[in-house]
Design brief:
34 residues; mainly alpha; 1 helix; 94% helix; rod-shaped; coiled coil
Length: 34
Amino acid sequence: QAAKITELEKRIKALEKDKGDLTKQRDSALKDVE
């Protein structure tokens, strides 16, 4: 059971990192447009 929880936490962290990267890309794209 603990292993499953660790897997989920790893996935969540990876998703949050991806989301952060996407947000940065969007912000820089918006700056390019202005």
